[in-house]
Write a structure and sequence with these properties.
- With about 675 residues, this protein is of the alpha/beta class.
- Helices cover about 60% and strands about 5% of the residues.
- It is built from 23 helices and eight strands.
- The chain has an eight-stranded mixed beta sheet with strand order 1-2-4-5-3-6-7-8, with helices on both faces.
- Helix 3 packs across helix 9, helix 6 packs across helix 7 and helix 13 runs parallel beside helix 15.
- The longest helix is centred in the C-terminal third of the chain and has 48 residues.
- The N and C termini lie far apart (about 155 Å).
- The N terminus is likely disordered.
- It binds guanosine-5'-diphosphate and magnesium ion.
- Guanosine-5'-diphosphate binds next to helix 3.
Length: about 675
């Protein structure tokens, strides 16, 4: 229930009419209605009044007193509020309940407690007790408003009210004597015949008597009134009969609530109930609920409940912004990107969420505050930790890619040294991983990146090993190609000569070229950091391939047409030319048959020479079979297909027979031709 209409009757202090009407905070608000229900809008009302974020920098004051003793009038004058004032002409009762308004130009919550005095109206005293509990649990200063003529009337209504206040206070703060409240008595329609000092003494004696008469729990028997209350007294002249004086005194009284330098400034720190402003609404509502349910008001428990509720709320608000920030980087990380400066961002989000939380929550119950802070940190870490782990994974991938790229680029360079290139790329890769990983790791976390680095190292090693194997293979292939080129001509020459030492010569070429190739391999392999085993295997491969290349060359040179050509040439050289290389002209007396047979037999012997690699020098045979070709190669295909013994056979026996018969036919043709030439010469 809000009433925003300006109250022309006594609601505005002198001289500030216009200003006050414009102050948004001046709306009064009924926090407890006549049905004893608590408002649901106090929090938003406090925000509206600008008090919500004042921390502890606010004060609470409540007024108590009999009906129609000018309480609302007093508050409106002193605090610039606009509480309802009874219409003089109709003398209607104002609504029962508790109203609140913000004091003008001050951080003060002013509570107008209507109808506190049930006795006077012959009603039950339930509301009196409840509102006293409620007011004492939240207010620093309790104004006790009474007419001068009520003073000293110990049996009067006021004294009943005071008894309730003292009783209730004992049950609330009995054990915590550090909670003090100021009871400020405002004596209305003060005439002046009895000095204020006398009135104060009477009231003090009365209230002391009430205190003494209270039945106190055993452990509080010795408790003194002054342990819990400060008493103060002020007298106000008649509002209508001494209007000017009344206004003057009201202005003086206002100073005691506004001016911190005033010697009678009422809001001492010890009166403050230490409820942060942003928790006041929740706190008051809870207090009222407890009071309504007639439960014992355990203030420490209430404060802890308040702290739990508010710390949760504050954490939720603080987390909302944090989650928003973190969400923004989640996607790119899931997509496999390395987020530049992720650690810096995370540090910033984390410190921001904590400072947002600390700013508001640190005012609450210490244990609850730090417990909830631990919870908050756990939530924060549970959001950040996947980002960190994702970043590490992406970093791992990115570093590996860069490593491969740099390694291959480095190897493309002239005279590049494999080992140097790989070491440089590897070092760079690790440095960039570690740098970025350290950046992303939050110092106060138990996060680790070392495991991921270990994985990266393993992959780098397997990549570089694979690359080394590829490069070695390429090198062996290159050497093999060169080998083929180098043996080609010399082997051809030696196979053409077909001397008795032909195979020794061919194997000599093989040996010499292979030696050079092996030396070349070893000199290059040094830069690859190959292990001895790898070298042994590569060399074995190289030797076998070299042998196979030699065999291929031999096969090429002993293919049917080539070999038949060689045989023909050999035969011709012996049959058609004499020892001096001069072409023969056959005469009838010449021994054609003898020459033919000799040349033919000599040539047929060659087939046997070509048919098998059979060096004259047995050392050669041993060297190739036992030494060079027994080591195992990595190349499994080579391994399976290779059979040194059978590779020594160049021409099978059938092939030998076939070639022999084909050669004989060729030779026979030459014989016939030679015979014919003598016949024709005779004929001439
Ligand atoms: P409340 O019920 O205690 O809040 O009293 P109100 O402020 O509504 O005032 C009740 C009546 O007392 C109104 O008619 C006021 O005009 C009148 N009144 C206010 N202040 C004074 C005062 O100082 N002296 C006298 N005699 N009457 C006052
Ligand atoms: Mg009133």
């Amino acid at each position: 229930v809000r009433a925003t209409a300006a109250q022309p009757n006594g609601s505005i202090p002198n001289g500030s009419t216009k200003h006050n009407a414009l102050v948004a905070g001046a709306d009064r608000h009924q926090i407890i209605d006549d049905q004893k229900n608590f408002t649901s809008e106090l929090a938003s009302q406090l925000k509206h009044w600008g008090l919500h974020d004042t921390g502890f920098d606010y004060d609470v004051v409540a007024v108590f007193g009999s009906q129609s003793t000018g309480k609302s009038t007093l508050l409106n004058r002193v605090f610039g509020t606009n509480f309802d004032v009874m219409d003089e002409t109709r003398r209607q009762q104002t609504t029962k309940g508790i109203w609140m308004c913000r004091g003008q130009d001050m951080n003060v919550m002013v509570m107008d407690v209507e109808g506190t005095d049930g006795r006077e109206r012959g009603e039950d005293q339930d509301f009196e007790r409840k509102s006293a509990l409620f007011s004492l649990a939240s207010s620093e200063v309790l104004l006790i408003n009474l007419w001068e003529h009520q003073v000293g009337l110990y049996q009067g209504a006021n004294m009943g009210l005071l008894k309730t206040v003292l009783e209730v206070n004992l049950s609330l703060f009995g054990k915590s004597s550090n909670q003090r409240t100021l009871l400020l008595f405002v004596i209305r329609d003060f005439i002046g015949t009895t000095p204020l000092a006398n009135l104060s003494a009477t009231l003090t004696a009365d209230i002391q008597r009430i205190w003494d008469s209270l039945s106190k729990p055993t452990d509080l028997q010795e408790a003194k009134l002054t342990d819990y209350f400060d008493l103060s007294f002020v007298a106000l002249p008649h509002k209508i009969l001494a209007a000017d004086k009344f206004e003057n005194e009201v202005r003086e009284l206002r100073k005691r609530f506004v001016d911190k330098t005033n010697e009678n400034y009422v809001f001492k720190p010890s009166y403050h109930k230490r409820i942060p402003a942003d928790g006041v609404a929740f706190y008051m509502e809870n207090i009222w609920e407890q009071v309504q349910a007639n439960k014992d008001l355990d203030l420490p428990t209430q404060q802890e409940l308040l702290a739990q509720f508010r710390c949760d709320e504050i954490a939720t608000v603080a987390l909302a912004e944090f989650n928003e920030q973190a969400k923004f980087q989640k996607r790119p990380i899931e997509l496999g990107r390395v987020v530049e400066g992720l650690g810096g961002m995370m540090r910033q989000w984390k410190s921001a969420v904590l400072s947002r939380y600390d700013r508001d929550a640190s005012r609450y119950h210490k244990d609850v505050y730090s417990r909830k802070r631990t919870d908050l940190l756990a939530v924060v870490d549970s959001v950040l930790s996947p980002l960190f782990l994702g970043q590490l994974k992406n970093l791992h991938k990115a570093c590996l890619v860069t490593f491969k790229k740099e390694m291959l680029e480095g190897l493309r360079g002239e005279n590049s040294n494999f080992a140097d290139v790989v070491t440089a790329a590897k070092d760079k890769c690790e440095v960039s991983f570690v740098t970025a990983a350290k950046e992303a790791r939050l110092e106060d976390s138990d996060w680790v990146w070392e495991d991921e680095l270990e994985l990266l190292r393993e992959e780098v090693k397997s990549v570089s090993d694979q690359c080394r194997a590829d490069e070695t293979k390429k090198m062996v292939n290159q050497i093999e190609r060169n080998f083929k080129k180098q043996i080609s001509d010399p082997v051809e020459v030696h196979l053409n000569v077909a001397s008795a030492r032909m195979w020794d010569e061919v194997l000599g070429v093989y040996r010499e070229t292979l030696d050079k190739s092996e030396a070349l391999y070893l000199s290059k392999a040094q830069t690859f950091n190959c292990t001895d085993e790898e070298n042994a295997s590569s060399l074995a491969t190289l030797r076998r391939r070299a042998w196979i290349a030699l065999r291929a060359k031999i096969d090429e040179q002993t293919a049917d047409p080539v070999l038949l050509g060689k045989l023909r040439t050999h035969f011709e050289e012996r049959f058609r030319y004499d020892e001096d290389g001069i072409p023969r002209v056959w005469k009838p007396d010449d021994d054609i048959d003898g020459a033919f047979k000799k040349a033919k037999d000599q040539t047929l012997e060659l087939i046997s020479l070509y048919s098998r690699i059979r060096p004259q020098d047995p050392e050669n045979a041993y060297e190739f079979s036992a030494d060079t070709l027994t080591a195992h190669s990595d190349d499994h295909q080579l391994e399976e297909e290779f059979d040194f013994e059978s590779s020594l056979t160049v021409l099978s026996e059938t092939k030998v027979l076939d070639l022999s018969s084909r050669f004989r036919k060729d030779a026979d043709a030459y014989y016939v031709e030679a015979k014919r030439s003598t016949v024709s010469s005779i004929a001439q």
